[in-house]
Amino acid sequence: MRFFSDNAAPAHPAVMEALAAANRLDTAYDGDEWSARMDAAFGELFETNVTAIWVTTGTAANGLALAALCPPWGSVLCHRFAHIEQDEAGAPGFFAHGAKLTLLDGPGAKVAPDAIDAAMARVRKDVHQVQPACLSITNATEYGLRYARSEMKALGEVCERHDLRFHVDGARFANAIVGGDASPAELTWKAGVDALSFGFVKNGGMNAEALILFDPELADTVRVMKKRSGHLLSKGRYAAAQILALLEEERWLANARAANTAATMLAEACGERLVYPVEANELFVKMSPTEASRLREAGFDFYDWADGEVRLVTSWDQDHDMVAKLAEAIRAL
Length: 333
Fold this sequence. Notes:
Layout: H1 13-21, H2 33-46, E1 51-55, H3 58-69, E2 74-79, H4 83-86, H5 91-95, E3 100-104, H6 113-121, E4 131-138, H7 149-161, E5 165-170, H8 173-179, E6 195-198, E7 209-213, H9 219-228, H10 237-247, H11 251-270, E8 282-286, H12 289-297, E9 303-304, E10 309-313, H13 320-331
Parallel strand pairs: 2-3, 2-4, 4-5, 5-6
Antiparallel strand pairs: 1-7, 6-7, 8-10, 9-10
Helix pairs in contact: 1-10, 2-10, 3-9, 8-11, 11-13
């Protein structure tokens, strides 16, 4: 009974059907009919003209975005628990040819404007220090919290004040959208975001993610870096077909809503054990090693997290009977 990662979930049936439909002769690389439809599909979703580029991993999407937004001699401001810091093996610096990460603090892995102001105040404007060039945040955060429209607007304003570019790691962007009351546009370009790594693998995809560029001047640079870094697939139509299949009929929203609903069911059982409110599809739960062992002995699979905490993650395909059984087991601890 799997609750350790939404990365382990199967691909949505519509994705499998789309892959089969794309399994025919077409132009190679990103010149195929599916790749050609991505800009318009995402443009409609975000209510503006965008450049939408498929890649195979979220790490690649983040690395390409940050390399386009931050020069090799600059730095990216991010939370110390950000995926780009904790889980990408130095990929941002690799893609950006040496750009560093400047780490910020904040509860729930959230970045607040005052933390950015404080970080900028510590940097002298001279050649002896690395100058911040970009802000990267995660929505939903590594602790499953979402940024509200007002928070995104405030971050965009502080970026403008400090002349910082703005990137969002949206590995669980769909979960953040269905959990709040803001539109995709309001949580991105209307708040000043330049680039979004739009996650699909955690939300029913097989091996395709999207990098959405709201600044058209970034497109040519990113395309060249994508090829140079080995991420231009010769049969890219299979990546584009997956993404389009999840956009169609708003499957990406339905899948995220199913995952969030399952997380809410578990949250009710966890009660005061919760470390943070559940706003997406991740739960961080206070639990002793003995209690965690009891759940594992009952067949439940999840990650240990911080000392005395475990992480539970629900997926788009979560069996509600299994969710109910885990909820019952948690209440019985």
